[in-house]
Amino acid sequence: MRSIHLLTAVCAAGAVLSTSLAGAAGTTRATGFASMNDAGGYYIKVGEQMSAPPADSPGTTVPQPTGKTLQSQVVADLQQRFNAAADPTTHLLSLAQAKSAGWGYVVTHFKEIDQDNKGSVSFDDFLRYLKARNGPAFRS
């Protein structure tokens, strides 16, 4: 069977759209949120929404991150959250911005993070605080 798959596109509203065109008569199996064609490819009809990604095949193991990989992921997530809350021009985070972003941990420990009493902190200040406070979990 010859298939052409049009890859997933995400529109501005966040709906996932995708189609699959099959060159020969084939069957599809519904999975609750998408259909699978004979070639094992998933697709949804235009206008449908996928509530979750397709499940992994039986027997598939997904390695959990550990060590440096896990640390890198955590630091990247913290950096992303910090950047979203911080001033986009100065890349500094004030106490008011931390409160506005709902970042309670930073609000609670802001005075300890802001060791120079500048009224704002950089991501490096925040990471330095975490390394000092949380030991091996944040050491390079």
From TrEMBL:
Signal peptide: 1-24
Boundaries of every EF-hand domain copy: 110-136
Molecular-function GO term, any one: calcium ion binding
Cited InterPro entries: EF-hand-dom_pair, EF_hand_dom
Keyword terms, alphabetized: Signal
Name under which the protein is recorded: EF-hand domain-containing protein
Organism encoding this protein: Paraburkholderia megapolitana
Lineage: Bacteria, Pseudomonadati, Pseudomonadota, Betaproteobacteria, Burkholderiales
